[in-house]
Amino acid sequence: MCQSCLSWYARCIAPYLVHAGCSANVFARMRRRLIPRAQGIVVEVGFGSGLNLPYYDAARVERLVGIDPDGTMLGLAEPKIRSLPFDVDCIRASGERLPLIDGLADTVVVTYAFCTIPDPDAALTEIRRILKPMGRLIFIEHGQAEGPRGRRWQERLNKPWGQIAGGCHLNRQPLHLIREAGFRIVEEERGRFPLPFWQLGSHYAGVAVLRQGDGPSPQARSCITRSHAHPLPRGIADDGRRHPVPDARGHRRWREGQLLAPELADIQTGCIHVSDGALQPFCYQRSDH
Prior knowledge:
By secondary structure, the protein is α/β, with parallel strands linked by helices. It has helices at residues 3-12, 14-22, 25-34, 71-82, 120-130, 148-164, 174-180, 218-227, 248-257, 265-268; strands at residues 40-45, 61-68, 87-92, 105-111, 131-143, 183-192, 202-210, 242-244, 271-275, 278-279.
């Protein structure tokens, strides 16, 4: 497939295909078991089309911040967001460059996203940075199959599958990634997918906390500072023009709540960049109540 066709597919087809596939019951059952445990200020990395939204416990969630680089996926989440009884702020940004202050989150939620994030190690470093010292990471992922035969098939299918499924990798090891990033997994579940989803390998879920005494290293903090120097998501060009943010009230509350990293001056002044004449809002939608 030519590069232009792949780009069109990634924009116009893949988000809807991923949304439909991840709506299957096998994923919903796991979401139903773990997502209600999120509490306080929750940051969801890989927010996508908002498939976790129905499972959050409104009595436990103070505010939800959704991070995703795909504007089409965020658009699919809008109808669900409007009906929620708690504040929801969606930011179009990558997991490797979270535009949030240190120690913000009581809970970080990542579901079926470490397979797609281009640099999961960098994303986990960012998650460590924004988590409070006693915060928790709730994760649900698929990954490398346990048997050698399944692993061989995953290796063969990995590249074409990634082109079809929005960059998803079949052969990553989420538990290893999480532990290597400085987390301690305190609860862990493993399972097998039903036959229609055999290529996804093993089903992993659990809760992780920061290892005692761990925090972003000086090198990691240096990388974090550099990553925030250019706040636009990858693929969004800065042409120097700025437009008022449609939801000025929402951004005013962001500034008062001090959720955004101070380096992101464009958002703090109520302005955003545009690319090719198209508005690129970081704050996509919030609830009104």
